[in-house]
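Bacteriophage CI repressor N-terminal domain-containing protein, Dyella acidisoli. Tokens?
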Amino acid sequence: MAEFEAAPIIDRMQEVVGVRTDIALGQHFGHGSSTVSGWRTRNKIPYEECMILAKRKGVSLDWLLLGTGTMHGDATPTSITEGSSNDPRMQRIGGFLSHWTATHNEDEKAWLEMQLARAVPEYAEWVATRGKS
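Tokens:
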């Protein structure tokens, strides 16, 4: 038996992203529909995707990989736009979204997204062209 099992890690990744299916988790990362089920079948831990979640969502790697501690542990969510924008306004917006993700439940996240789509039509169009996960 392997020292680490991929399935519970993938389940925790789904919890962080707020999806219930392997297909939706794969879509979140831009992968094909069978990628995550392949991870499960081969017992392959997706370390790169775990690191992405840890950085973007402020998730504890101890919790994500080992199942110990709490989801956010002592981690501080980092800006979604970190490294991709020198504009302090975009960094503030990204930081706020990271904070919101880390501190609000799924209903509140859905509410915020609806508000954003109403206030910024370009966001609704952007989501429509990429699909929601």
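The CA atoms of residues 83 and 90 lie 11 Å apart.
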